[in-house]
Write a structure and sequence with these properties.
Distance between the termini: 46 Å
Membrane topology: Multi-pass membrane protein
Helix content: over 70%
Transmembrane segments: 12-29, 41-65, 86-109, 129-157, 169-187, 220-243, 264-284, 304-335, 356-375, 395-417, 438-456
Number of strands: 4
CATH topology: Amino acid/polyamine transporter I
Subcellular location: Membrane
Organism: Blautia wexlerae
Number of domains: 1
Protein name: Na+-dependent transporters of the SNF family
Strand order of the largest sheet: 1-2
Shape: globular
CATH class: Mainly Alpha
Mean pLDDT: 90
């Protein structure tokens, strides 16, 4: 077996880098939005159960495959079963597509951070500010290129000197910022025009309390699917990232502890994101503000920060800096996955590979950033929504390819290779795999069915 020259220095470096990949922008806006939409505490309970079962299964599989094969997605699946190399190619294509637009979103967040840092918070709260920004033919491109450039620079410096070094300081800072904003949100108080007082504690209880009103079997299944899709994307599984990161893990690292730590870190940040956003929105916008959906971060939250007065400027700075860290850590992992596969395919060095891919994705980021202006298109997607270039790339990668890849990978591991292929790696060096029985059941029977249903639902077949 060919050993990789790049590797994480130890368990801490790996966990922080992997957790950084898992903790993306989706944790900061999509998780709170879904929790508010899907019954608060009810969504939380379902989500936490899925973390310990469904998420654990896919995360364990990806990391164990990576370390056992010492290869990234294409090489890993080819080594497992040559006839299944196509699954590695499909997995490789997911980050290839995601990378076209992730830096664009990172650029949007960076723009808002700059706006708050330069004292323009009031302007950001205007109704048409976000629309005016993304439809500009210059500003979104500039910020996307800056974000892409920073990402490429970190990956260029390698696993230990780039990814691990940045993750070791960025992830603890991100966690501290999320905790600070969460605590502050609980202290908020606002009296509306009717004289009714709304507090952060009330918003937090709204977040935690299971809302069973109007719950039907169909509604419950929708909440289950929402939680599954959030978990699926949040943990960075079935896109080759965790396989690549797993291939950088040294043999003496206890993968069982590492998987547990990644789960805890990712879920903890997601929970705290809800604790910092939902109470704040509840205080100043009531339950009506919970329906903001995808526009929550760029439209609703700036209005909430504006309503906080002078304190809102400081909170806005903290929030968007936090969002930059979350997005950057994920963007790094997406690019690294592509770089690692290309290095294996073309037998090129890291610096040359990163340089070529940087040029490609700087151009791609610029095109996607202009998808709301010069290259504007409007396409109706199979799930009933309409989208522009960014939405199309996101739909193909997240809603179609990732559930399909996860479905095929559970079949490969559960029935072709058998679960022992992963279990043996988890028990390497005498490590105890406490959830071994659960893993067997999930990978063979439960996960394939769940992924098949999610694939049908996300592609619009089930609506």
């Amino acid at each position: 077996m060919e050993r990789k020259s790049n590797h994480f220095s130890g368990q801490l470096g790996f966990v922080l880098a992997a957790a950084g990949s898992a903790v993306g922008v989706g944790n900061l806006w999509r998780f709170p939005y879904l929790a508010a939409k899907d019954g608060g505490g009810l969504f939380l309970i379902i989500y936490f159960i899925l973390v310990l079962t469904f998420g654990f299964t896919l995360l364990t599989s990806d990391i164990a495959i990576g370390r056992r094969t010492q290869k990234s997605a294409i090489g890993a699946y080819a080594e497992m079963k040559p006839k299944w190399k196509f699954l590695g190619i499909l997995t490789f294509l997911v980050p290839v597509l995601i990378m076209t637009y992730y830096a664009v979103i990172g650029g949007w967040i960076t723009k808002y951070a700059v706006v708050y840092l330069t004292g323009q918070a009031k302007a950001a709260a205007a109704d048409d500010y976000f629309t005016s920004f993304i439809t500009s033919s210059t500003s979104p491109v500039i910020f996307a290129l800056i974000f892409m450039g920073v990402t490429a620079f970190i990956v260029y410096n390698g696993v230990q000197d780039g990814i691990e070094k940045v993750s070791k300081w960025m992830m603890p800072v991100l966690l501290v910022l999320v905790v600070i904003i969460s605590i502050y949100s609980l202290t908020l108080k606002h009296t509306d025009s009717s004289g009714q007082v709304h507090t952060g504690i009330q918003g937090f209880l709204y977040y935690l309390t299971p809302n069973l009103e109007g719950l039907t079997v169909q509604r419950f299944l929708q909440i289950l699917l929402d939680a599954m899709s959030q978990l699926f994307f949040s943990l960075s599984v079935s896109m080759g990232i965790m396989i690549t990161y797993g291939s950088y893990v040294k043999p003496d690292v206890n993968l069982n502890k590492a998987v547990n730590q990644i789960e805890i870190f990712d879920t903890g940040v997601a929970f705290l994101a809800g604790a910092m956003i939902i109470p704040a929105v509840f205080v100043f916008s009531g339950t009506e503000g919970m329906g903001a959906g995808p526009s929550l971060m760029f439209v609703s939250l700036p209005k909430v920060f504006a309503a906080m007065g002078k304190a809102g400027i400081f909170v806005g700075i903290l929030f968007f800096v936090t969002a930059i860290f979350a997005t950057l850590s994920s963007c790094i992992s997406v690019l690294e996955s592509i770089v690692a596969n290309c290095m294996e395919i073309f037998h090129t060095g890291r610096k040359k590979t990163v340089s070529v891919l940087s040029a490609v994705y700087l151009a791609a980021s610029a095109i996607i950033a202009l998808g709301y202006s010069i290259f504007y298109v409007e396409v109706e997607l199979p799930n009933g929504s309409t989208g522009q270039l960014l939405d199309i790339m996101d739909y193909i990668s997240n809603s179609v390819m990732m559930p399909f890849i996860a479905l095929l990978s559970t079949i490969l591991i559960g029935w072709v290779m058998t679960p022992d292929y992963v279990i043996d790696e988890m028990e390497r060096n005498g490590s105890r795999f406490r959830r071994k029985k659960l893993y067997r059941i999930m990978i063979r029977y439960v996960a394939p069915v769940m992924m098949f249903i999610l694939f049908l639902q996300s592609t619009g077949v089930l609506s």
